[in-house]
Specification:
With about 375 residues, the chain is of the alpha/beta class. It has 2 domains: about 10-160, Rossmann fold (3-Layer(aba) Sandwich), CATH 3.40.50.11720; about 170-350, Rossmann fold. It has helices spanning about 20-35, 50-55, 70-80, 95-100, 125-130, 145-150, 165-175, 180-185, 200-205, 225-235, 250-255, 265-270, 290-295, 310-315, 325-335, 340-355, 355-365, and strands at about 10-15, 40-45, 60-65, 80-90, 105-110, 135-140, 155-160, 190-195, 215-220, 240, 255-260, 275-280, 300, 320. A 7-stranded parallel beta sheet has the order 3-2-1-4-5-6-7, with helices on both faces. The protein has a 7-stranded parallel beta sheet with strand order 10-11-9-8-12-13-14, with helices on both faces. The radius of gyration is 22 Å and the shape is globular.
């Protein structure tokens, strides 16, 4: 970092836990850079899933965040000389926050979300509450987050919504064209299955034989060779790996199952779908439903979605269904396979929720 960054220049520091948080905060970063092209930006990641994919991001210098120690925090802040720091969703680092506060460097949390189960709101949570006192302003997603922060004496908070809506809306407005996908699906209705895990894939494998006129695109969350091989074996009617597409036989190209064995295509794949399945709902929790909804795709996912407000909202709008079994999946597929009302509801939901980015930038640029 010290070799690559001129510490005499001021920088705006964005920190993201992983790729998901990067996509969430990306609209703020890119609009800030658009409005102030001379500003220097530093991006840090905690997870390889973010760093490895975005390490060559053109708008910023990108690094891993060093482990949170007093020495690292002091040396890092001195190396990047931040004029402000912007963290996304729920990233809280004691020593980094402490140094920022001591040096009167503004710190903003955007698209924040808080739950009563977190340590901040427990009787023993004094240490954790002190971390939050370093934040200059909280931009939170919902009323519960605002209520919880105010209950511990933090008034510097506003309900601002979720910047992911801005990101997915922008993506849907100008998606990247994928000629190989267009050739594969032709004029067939297409079911896009994103960020799937083995439990999801076992259920999904029951659909292609029942719906031979449909195309199925499987984009798994993990793309290591053994996982891809397991997906190939699951589907009884044969499948084609995307990496083999250019050299595929005509019979393979005419398959109705395409397995995406790379990272980075999923957000553009949804433009070709008629409905979507979002993975993760049989594990820690579902992945990003909004990318699909922005294209007007009704979404189906597993039972673990309770931590995701957008999933609850889409269910309430009859634009999503949660399933737990093969029978429920097939019913949801049948219900959504030609459901124009669900399509319109999904798209309108995203359009109505955008705007958080402009509100955040208006606030932080007015103060700095």
């Amino acid at each position: 970092m010290e070799n690559r960054i001129n510490k005499q220049e001021k920088h705006v520091w964005f920190h993201f836990a992983s790729l998901g948080e990067f996509e969430q905060g990306r609209p703020v970063l890119e609009k800030l850079k658009s409005q102030y092209p001379d500003k220097k930006i530093v991006v840090t990641f905690f997870s390889p899933s973010g760093y490895e994919i975005r390490k060559n991001y053109a708008l910023a210098e990108v690094f891993y965040l060093p482990i949170d120690t007093p020495g690292h925090a002091k040396r890092f802040i001195e190396a990047i000389n931040p004029e402000m720091a912007i963290f996304t969703k729920y990233e809280f680092w004691h020593f980094y926050f402490k140094v920022l506060k001591a040096r009167n460097i503004p710190l903003y949390l955007i698209s924040g979300i808080f739950r009563e189960s977190q340590s901040f709101f427990k009787w023993y949570g004094g240490f954790y509450r002190n971390i939050l006192k370093a934040v200059t302003y909280f931009f939170v997603q919902n009323e519960e987050s605002e209520r919880l922060l105010k209950s511990i004496g933090l008034q510097n908070v506003v309900i601002n919504g979720d910047t992911r809506f801005d990101r997915v809306f922008e993506n849907a407005a100008s998606p990247k064209s994928l000629p190989e996908i267009e050739r594969f699906i032709g004029y067939s209705p297409t079911f896009v299955c994103g960020s799937t895990w083995p439990e999801d894939e076992k259920l999904l494998a029951t659909l292609p034989l029942k719906y031979p006129d449909w195309k199925f695109i499987i984009a798994p969350h993990e793309i290591h060779e053994s996982h891809i091989d397991s997906i190939v074996k699951l589907f009884p009617v044969g499948s084609l790996r995307f990496s083999n597409y250019k050299n595929a036989t005509m019979a393979e190209v005419n398959s109705n199952i395409l397995i995406i064995d790379n990272i980075g295509m999923l957000s553009s794949l949804y433009q070709y779908g008629k409905l979507a399945y979002i993975g993760g709902g049989f594990g820690a929790g579902i992945h990003n439903t909004l990318e699909a909804a922005a294209f007007g795709l009704p979404v189906i996912f597993g039972p673990k979605y309770d931590k995701f407000q957008e999933a609850k909202d889409l269910i309430a709008l009859a634009a999503a269904k949660s399933i737990s079994s093969e029978q429920e999946l097939q019913q949801a597929f049948a219900d959504f396979s030609n459901n124009q009302a669900a399509k319109l509801a999904a798209k309108k939901y995203v359009a109505d929720k955008k705007g958080a980015t402009d509100a955040i930038l208006s606030k932080i640029t007015a103060e700095n």
